[in-house]
Amino acid sequence: QAAHMGTGELTFHAGTYKDAVEVRIALSGLRTVTLWLVPGVGIVKAVSSGGEGDSKRHITVELVEFKPAK
Fold this sequence. Notes:
- It is built from no helices and 5 strands.
- The chain has a 5-stranded antiparallel beta sheet with strand order 1-2-3-4-5, with no helix packed on it.
- The protein is elongated and about 45 Å long.
- A hairpin with a 6-residue loop joins strand 4 (about 40-50) and strand 5.
- The chain has strands spanning about 1-10, 15-25, 30-40, 40-50, 55-60.
C-alpha cells in the first residue's frame, strides 16, 4: 500500500529540491520504503526500513549528482 506523505523541500549532497514528493510504501514483514521524487529529476532519495528481529535494517540511498539532459 502506498501513501502520498506530502511535498516539501529536501536538502542533501546533490543540492536542494523544493518540490520533492514523499511517498511511503508499506511492504510485507513490517518493512517500509519511502521515496522522494522530484519533477524533471526522478527519485532523489530512498529509505528502506523495518523488518523483525535479526532482519531489522535501515538503508538510505541518495542522489549524489544530477546533470540535466542537453
